[in-house]
Amino acid sequence: MDIIRRNFFRLLRAGAFGNEEQIEPMSAWKWRQTFALASQSGLAPILFDGIQACEGQFFLQLPSDLTEQWGEEAARAAQRYEQNCHVLAQLMSLLGTMQLRPMLTLPWTIVPLHSHPDHHTVNVDAEAATACIYFPYETQGKKADEWAVANGSDSDDSRHLLRYRWQSLQVEHRHRLLILNNRLTNSTLQNIIEKERLEGGTAYVTIGNQRMETTNTTLTMLVALLSIVRTSLDEGLQLWQIVDLGVLLRQQGDRVDFVKLQEWIERLRFTRMAQLVATVLTGLLGFTSDEVPFVPALKIGGDVDDIAASVLSQRQRSASRFFRYSPGEGFASVVASITQRLGNVKE
Q1: Which of 150, 155, 189 is nearest to 172 (CA)?
Q2: What CA–CA distance (Å, rounded) separates 50 from 305?
Q3: Directed axis angle between helix 28-40 and helix 44-53, to 10°?
Q4: Which residues contact 235 (CB under 8 A, 6 or more apart)?
Q5: How far apart are CA 239 and CA 273, in angstroms?
Q6: DSSP 205-263
Q7: CB atoms within 10 A of CB 191
């Protein structure tokens, strides 16, 4: 792994997880390349936290204009966070008063667990900032959608979800917590979700002084893993999602039923993809194998460098790169993508 990537991951570990890291000396050009990678991955504010955590180290010598630019990006993220929290709290309160039982889901349920939630990727990347709200009951879900179409803007209705904008926030109503493209696997997933929702209870998260209902930590962990799988097959591994999973493990790992989680992963046949995620956590983000007990990391040696290059490269974002880790869902994703494109063709 080259020095730019090594220092990138050192700053990421320091900023996201509070690890003590020693920075290697780099030229001004290489520091600018590091900033470009951080901005490209939506992690610049978190790496800025890492810079501040390593402040005082002799080899941490950034150009003054770059330090200022990095700090300004972090400040803009913090401003957006304050606004997004206010709008999200208002929306969840409003939906709650209508007795629609909204349940907040990823990524916003993990944001408050970060040491600096105002520097999370949701405050940088517009797509990541989408507030996903799950309605477990069909009747309430339909009423919520009717309200959104009448009161929101730019609404877009598709299978099992509705996207719209409410004030400054992009929102997504989900009638299914998560959907997989492979029909058989998806049927298994829906059975798991329904059973756990009824028997495993729920949890709560506070954003903007508003207490919001969400799924319990074990189910949230499963959804976080499967979200990484879905995204990787469409766009490539998104590092910020794996950082989120790591934060969830560090902050609430004691609330996870890892025996149940491992059983779910095996039933869904996502063991190899989960192993890939575990490899990123242990090989790049400083986790120990004991902190990732649901699957053993892949013993792939030098491929860790290849994965590091992949998660930091815009050129690797295709389903084929990670197809071998989840061939069933990968093939289903390709078919779904082709079907969707054909459906968009106008006569």
Answers
A1: 155
A2: 21
A3: 130
A4: 317
A5: 15
A6: EEETTEEEEEE-HHHHHHHHHHHHHHHHHHT---HHHHHHHHHHHHHHGGG--HHHHHH
A7: 11
Could you say which DSSP state residue 161 is in?
E
- Single-letter code of the amino acid located at 193: I
Q: Does residue 308 contact residue 5 with C-beta atoms inside 8 Å?
A: yes
Residue 259's Cβ-count burial label (10 Å; 0-12, 13-18, 19+) is exposed
Describe the chain by its helix, strand, coil percentages, rounded to 5.
60, 10, 30
Using CA atoms, how far apart are residues 102 and 276, in angstroms rounded to an integer?
Answer: 33
Enumerate residues 6+ apart whose C-beta is below 8 A from 176: 134, 160, 161, 190, 193
Q: Cα separation of 104 and 174, whole Å?
A: 10
Nearest CA-CA partner of 44 in 133, 116, 144, 138: 116
Is the pTM above the cut of 0.70? yes
What tokens appear for 171 in the block? Answer: 């929102």
pLDDT by position in tens, the chain (length 347) = 799 999 999 999 999 999 999 999 999 999 999 999 999 999 999 999 999 999 999 999 999 999 999 999 999 999 999 999 999 999 999 999 999 999 999 999 999 999 999 999 998 887 778 999 999 999 999 999 999 999 999 888 876 789 999 998 999 999 999 999 889 999 999 999 999 999 999 999 999 889 999 999 999 999 999 999 888 877 778 899 999 999 999 999 999 999 999 999 999 999 988 988 898 899 899 999 899 998 876 665 556 677 777 677 754 444 455 545 555 444 344 334 433 433 443 33
Torsion from C-alpha of 49, 54, 56, 60, nearest 10 degrees:
-100
CA–CA gap between residue 143 and residue 294 (Å, rounded):
38
